[in-house]
């Protein structure tokens, strides 16, 4: 209860005009970036990461939390207006929100999305506050071999979560692991893979990898799809002017959706969020499928049923709270945004782990308070006040928008590292990530492989050192054996059984 009390007390920090400004500004920036097709809140956080150096840790983490929550709900704007999700987490939302837009009910669809995002976001954050300390206590039972097996489990789940693209995801993850080995050895002071370059002996910094992977590669991808951006602007010319009161769904409409739908979808999203690599898109998909399965009118989904919007948006915003659980208690990011938040923690000298809730609860509690504040207050308030303007974000000229982003990315990388070499590494990583994306390789697994690589190597070598090179130590210890068995279960159900069932169905038809 002490930690919960600290979270409640942290709401008082929002009375500070400076902190409130950064939280609100972060939410608005995250909403704008997630509403523009092709841009994401991950990109916004990657670009703003250098600014955290000029802020105190508490303010920086609270701003990151508001950007995170905004990134999950902002994608529903263009998913509704032009049937192009601004973020991957809003893919399922578009199935029912765009048909409502075609019927002239676009503002109402956005209202349902905003209300469901508020419910899911608050529910996920509250569960995080209630359960994170318990999970942290349980994590104390995980020793060196267990931590190694856990990181391996996370990497495998991240790879197999890329349905239909497992081979390329595995290659990208291995590439990230390889990049993580560049620099000084983790156990002995010997430079590895520096090729005689002095700057490489210090290793590749996290900042250029994040900015290059998400910012630079996204700019190159958008430039390669300039015709698509032009078609989007043409579509927006027909978007009708809307009134602010049109965003408020009626009580009868909310009752028809039902509290069970909101609650069940939020639970699904939270549980999916605790799985590393799953993300809001998977949470929204599972909640949507469950809503269709239990509905009395399953045929109405995909034709403008508000229940589909409520299920998808409740789930993907509840993912925010779930994804922070493995990041805070184990140092394993649940999705790309929490990977960047992990970078903010590490940069400021905060090491996530089992004792984080006790030793540095004063820094974590304000971040969770900002997460709840963003979901409960900022989501409905900003949609009501600025909804008509958000719909027109995609009309911004691409040359002006992406030119500004390119300048911020390069300059921000230099400010963060004060190294022209690391700035050039950001460009190299951007070009590499662009070609990987062009050929269907998910760069998310590359980034997570780069972040998790040092921990995997450290715990693996430490475990083998303690056991004199005996690999059976991983099955002899109960913690590591548990994660090995869990890995086998996930591989069987997600990568073996389901593909076999699909092939059987195809042959039968």
TrEMBL record:
Residues 20-448 form the DUF112 domain. This is Tricarboxylate transporter. It comes from Billgrantia pellis. The keyword Transmembrane helix applies. The chain crosses the membrane at residues 20-48, 108-135, 141-162, 169-188, 200-221, 330-350, 362-385, 405-436, 480-496. Keywords: Membrane, Transmembrane, Transmembrane helix. PANTHER family: TRICARBOXYLIC TRANSPORT PROTEIN (PTHR35342:SF5).
């Amino acid at each position: 209860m002490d930690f919960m009390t600290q979270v409640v007390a942290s709401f008082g920090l929002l009375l500070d005009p400076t902190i409130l400004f950064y939280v609100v500004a972060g939410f608005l920036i995250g909403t704008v970036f997630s509403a523009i097709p092709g841009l994401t809140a991950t990109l916004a956080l990657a670009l703003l990461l250098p600014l955290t150096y000029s802020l105190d840790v508490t303010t920086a983490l609270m701003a990151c939390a508001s950007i995170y929550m905004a990134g999950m709900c902002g994608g529903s704007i263009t998913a509704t207006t032009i049937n192009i999700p601004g973020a991957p987490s809003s893919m399922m939302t578009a199935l029912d929100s765009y048909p409502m837009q075609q019927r002239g009910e676009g503002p109402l669809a956005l209202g349902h999305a905003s209300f469901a995002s508020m419910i899911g976001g608050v529910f996920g954050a509250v569960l995080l506050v209630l359960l994170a300390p318990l999970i942290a206590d349980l994590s104390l039972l995980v020793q060196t071999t267990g931590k190694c097996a856990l990181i391996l489990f996370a990497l495998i789940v991240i790879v197999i979560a890329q349905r239909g693209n497992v081979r390329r995801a595995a290659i990208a993850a291995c590439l990230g692991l390889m990049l993580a080995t560049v620099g000084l050895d983790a156990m002995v002071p010997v430079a590895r893979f520096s090729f005689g370059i002095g700057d490489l002996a210090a290793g590749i910094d996290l900042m250029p990898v994040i900015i290059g992977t998400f910012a630079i590669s996204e700019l190159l991808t958008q430039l390669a799809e300039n015709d698509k951006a032009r078609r989007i602007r043409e579509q927006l010319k027909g978007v009708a002017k809307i009134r602010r009161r049109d965003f408020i769904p009626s009580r009868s409409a909310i009752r028809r959706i039902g509290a069970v739908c909101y609650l069940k979808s939020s639970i699904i999203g939270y549980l999916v969020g605790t799985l590393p690599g799953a993300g809001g898109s998977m949470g929204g998909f599972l909640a949507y499928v469950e809503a269709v399965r239990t509905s009395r009118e399953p045929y109405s989904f995909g034709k403008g049923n508000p229940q589909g919007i409520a299920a998808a948006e409740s789930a993907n915003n509840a993912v925010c709270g779930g994804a922070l659980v493995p990041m805070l208690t184990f140092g394993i990011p649940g999705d790309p945004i929490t990977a960047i938040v992990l970078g903010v923690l590490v940069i400021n000298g905060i090491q996530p782990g089992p004792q984080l809730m006790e030793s540095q609860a004063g820094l974590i509690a304000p971040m969770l308070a900002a997460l709840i504040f963003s979901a409960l207050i900022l989501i409905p308030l900003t949609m009501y006040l600025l909804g008509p303007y958000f719909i027109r974000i995609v009309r911004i000229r691409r040359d002006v928008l992406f030119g500004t982003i390119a300048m911020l990315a390069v300059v921000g990388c230099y400010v963060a590292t004060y190294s022209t070499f690391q700035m050039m590494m950001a460009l190299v990583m951007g070009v590499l990530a662009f070609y990987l994306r062009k050929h269907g390789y998910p760069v998310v697994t590359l980034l997570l492989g780069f972040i998790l690589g040092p921990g995997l190597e450290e715990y693996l070598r430490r475990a083998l050192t303690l056991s004199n090179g005996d690999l059976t130590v991983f099955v002899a210890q109960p913690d590591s054996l548990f994660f090995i068995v869990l890995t086998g279960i996930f591989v069987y159900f997600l990568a073996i059984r389901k593909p076999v069932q699909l092939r059987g169905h195809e042959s039968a038809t």
